[in-house]
Amino acid sequence: MNLNKFMRQFFYNIKKIHFLQIPDSLKVSGLKKSELKNVEQVETTMQELKQLAKDKNVPMLVLTQLSRKVERRKEHTPLVKDIPHCKSVVPFADSILLLYREAYYDPNADRSIAWCFIEKNARGGLGAMPLIWNDEKIGFAAAQFAPGSHGLV
């Protein structure tokens, strides 16, 4: 998949929302009454954003920071369950993309290599897409493979 084409196709008129975090201390099982209100608020917000995107016919990008559980695991690759209140968020998402840079956890790793894990995709397949991280521009670019090899160019 060509990342630049993907970005142009799906994110041309995108509306971006930075998803405000609910504290990690909030536990989904055994909720207190006040905590239940927060979970319901997340679900209601997701429903409203999904409806707004449909009504306005524009893509909606909701960003969220993953829970700190990722950092406590030996394997730091992000999982859908690391999304705060994933049971309230995932049903409303058409796509879920998780970004990962090994160099964030391992100072000896190549700083320029990153991955985009496509964990949910209403319009296509799932999998992992290699990316190149640019420290100077603080951004990603599509990675390219050398023909006939398994290594990044």
Describe this structure in words.
The chain has 153 residues and is of the alpha+beta class. Helices cover 27% and strands 23% of the residues. It is built from 4 helices and 6 strands, in the order H-E-H-E-H-H-E-E-E-E. The strands form 2 sheets. The protein has a 4-stranded antiparallel sheet, with no helix packed on it. The protein has a two-stranded parallel ribbon with strand order 1-2. A hairpin with a 5-residue loop joins strand 4 and strand 5. The longest helix has 24 residues. It is globular, with a radius of gyration of 17 Å. The two termini are 16 Å apart. About 7% of the residues have low confidence.
Gross morphology is globular
Decide which structural class fits the backbone: alpha+beta
The number of distinct β-strands equals: 6
Reading the helices and strands in chain order gives HEHEHHEEEE
Overall pLDDT level: 77
- Low-confidence parts: 20-29
Strand content: 15-25%
In DSSP terms (H or I, runs of 4 or more residues), the helix count works out at: 4
- From the alpha carbons, calculate the radius of gyration and give it in angstroms: 17 Å
Strand order of the largest sheet: 3-4-5-6
Percentage of residues assigned to helices: 25-40%
Question: Strand count, sense and closure of the main sheet?
Answer: 4 strands, antiparallel
Distance between the amino and carboxyl termini: 16 Å
